[in-house]
Amino acid sequence: MDSNLSYIAERLTELTAIPSPTGYTKHATDYLVTTLTDLGLAPTISNKGNVLVELGGTGRPLVLASHVDTLGAMVRSIKDNGRLRPTTLGGHQWRTADGENCTVHTRDGRTYTGVVLNTEPSVHVADEKVEQLEKNMEVLLDENVSTKDETLALGVQAGDIIAMDPRTTITASGYIKSRFLDDKLSASILLGLARAVVAGEVTLARKVSLLFTVYEEVGHGGSVVPADTQDMISVDMGCVGADLANLANEAALRAVRKGRKLVTQEDMLAAFEFVIAGSEKKGSVLTEFEKKLVAYHEVGHAMVAYKQKNAEPVQKITIVPHTEGSLGYTLLMPEEDKTNLRTRDELMAKIAVSMGGRAAEEVVMNTMTNGASQDIQEATSIARNMVAMYGMSDAVGMVALGSVRNQYLDGGYGLDCAQDTAAIMDREVKRILDECYKDAVQVIRDNREDMDKVVAYLLEKETITGGEMVAILEGRDPSAVEEAYASTRKSEDGFRPSQPSVIEAPAKHISMTSEKIEMPPEDKGEDAQTEDKPSTEPETPDTSAENTDENK
Questions:
Q1: Nearest Cα residue to 116 out of 56, 151, 75, 150
Q2: 67: CB partners within 8 A, 6+ apart
Q3: Alpha helix locations (H) across 462-525?
Q4: CA dihedral 36, 206, 244, 247 (to 10 degrees)
Q5: Strand positions, DSSP E, 32-100
Q6: Which of 410, 446, 162 is nearest to 304 (CA)?
Q7: CB-based contacts of 431: which residues, under 8 Å, 6+ apart?
Q8: Among 62, 33, 27, 12, CA closest to 192
C-alpha cells in the first residue's frame, strides 16, 4: 500500500506541474493518456477532450470521474503601461491570487513568467485601500516592457492563458500542499487505482471505468459518459471533509438498518435529507387542522414549482415534523449539475415557488401563518439581490447599489447609494415580490382541484415523492410509482421522470414550514360566515370512489 501512495504522490507532483486552466488542458490530458497507456490500458479521448479508460470487471457499470482542469485566468486586454488586465477562467478568487507568480502562455507556444498584483499593492503609500477585485488586478511580466506595443511585440495578446504557480509541496510529515489539489489529487488517486487493478492488488466487483474531465470549472465536465453507465461517482473536493464523513456515515447506518451490506444512492439521498432537516420527530403530534394547513402549504410550494417553466423539479413533499424545527418541507432538486449562473426568469420562478406556501394558506385556508417566515426571507433576499447586485430592475438599471461585506461569513452586503435611491430599491423589491406572489396565487387558484387530490394523498401517506404527485395530476395510480426519488421534471422526448433511470444531482433548494402554527379561534356562531367569505375549511375531495379513472 505504501508503494501505491508513493505512486499517487509522484503522479500528483507531475500533474500539478502541468498548467491546465479550463480551456488549456491538452498537455494534462496527453499526460493522462501516456500514463494510462504505460500501465497497459487503452484510454480514449472524446471530442471535448475528456479521457475515458475501462479498468475491467463485470456487473453493473460504474464510472469514477475527476477533473484535471483548474481555475486560471486569461488576458482580457493589454494596458498602456504594458501590463496585462486579466479575467478569470472559472470561479477564481482574486484575493487568493494577489502576489502569486504566474505564467502566460501565448498562442504561438511562447511562455512568459510574471506576477499577479493589485494596482495599488502598497497600502501605506496609496491614498486609499483598493479592493482585490478583478478590475483592480493586473499581471506584471518579468520582461523589460513599459508600453502596450512592447508587450505586443512579445507575441502576447488578448485571449492568452494565464496559469498560476501550483506551489506543490510534500512535507516531511507526509502532507501535500498545492493550489491545485482540486481536483488533480483526485485524478492522481484514480491513477493509483488503475495501477493497483493492473497489478492485481484490487479486484473489481463490477465493471469500472475512469473518466477524467476537462471542463468541470465551467460546469459541464462529465456531460458525456458511456452509454451503459448505471452509476457515476464524482471524486472531487467540493465537500468539506467533516460534512462528507457525516453524510457517508448516516448513509451507512441506514443501509445496515435496512439489512444491506452496500450503501445505495437512495441511502445517500436519505442521509442528505437527514443532514438538512434532521430526523423525524415521532412523538410530535399535530392537530387535524395543523396537518391540513401544513399539507396545503407544502403542496402550494410543489404545485407552483411544477407549473413554473424555470423552476427546479419537486423531489419530495412531507408533513412529518423534523428535529431541525420544520413541521414539513418540500424538496426541490435539479435533474443535472448546474453552476450558480441563473437567469432572471429562473430567479423570478424561485421567488414564486417560495411564495407558493403562503399563497396556498390564503387562497385555500383563508388565513396566514408564521410558517412562511423562512420563505419570505429567502424571497426577499433574492429580489433584493436582483435589484441591488444583478442589475435586473428597469427602474434602477444596471448599477450596483451594494457590495459584499462578509463574503466568507454570512455573504451579507452593505448599500453604496443615497437614501433616495435606497427607497427606490425598496419599492422595486416590493414590486418583484408582489408580482411573484400574484403569479403564485393564480397558480393555486387555477389548480385548486388538483391540489385537493394531492393534499388528500399527502395527508394519508404523510410523505410522497414528486413522481407520485405527477401520477395524481395525470390520473394515474401513485402507488404504482416505483422510484423512491422520482421528480416532476418532463423531458422533450417524452421521458416521464416519475419513473427515472438517471441519478439526480444534490438538492439546491428546500422550502420548510419552520414555525409552530397556532390554532385560530373557533367561531361557533352559525351566522358568522357570509356567502361572500370563503370557508376556512377546504372541501375534502371524495376519495371513496377508488376505482374511478380520476382516482386511479
A1: 75
A2: 183, 186, 187, 212, 213, 214, 215, 216, 217, 221, 236
A3: 466-473
A4: 170
A5: 44-45, 51-56, 62-67, 72-78, 84-89
A6: 446
A7: 395
A8: 12
Contact (CB, 8 A) for 386 and 399: no
pLDDT at 469 over 50: yes
Active site residue 298: yes
Residue 131 has pLDDT above 80, yes or no: no
Q: Among 216, 217, 273, 298, which one carries the catalytic annotation?
A: 298
Q: Strand, coil or helix: what is 334?
A: coil
The pairing of strands 231-234 and 62-67 is parallel
| Alpha helix positions (H), 17-119 | 26-38
Q: How many CB atoms lie within 10 A of CB 548?
A: 10
The average pLDDT across 278-303 equals: 84
C-alpha grid cell, residue 135: 478590475
- Whether the pLDDT of residue 523 is over 80: the answer is no
Partners of 72 in the β-ladder: 89
Q: How confident is the model at residue 206 (pLDDT cuts 50, 70, 90)?
A: very high
Span 483-487, average pLDDT: 57
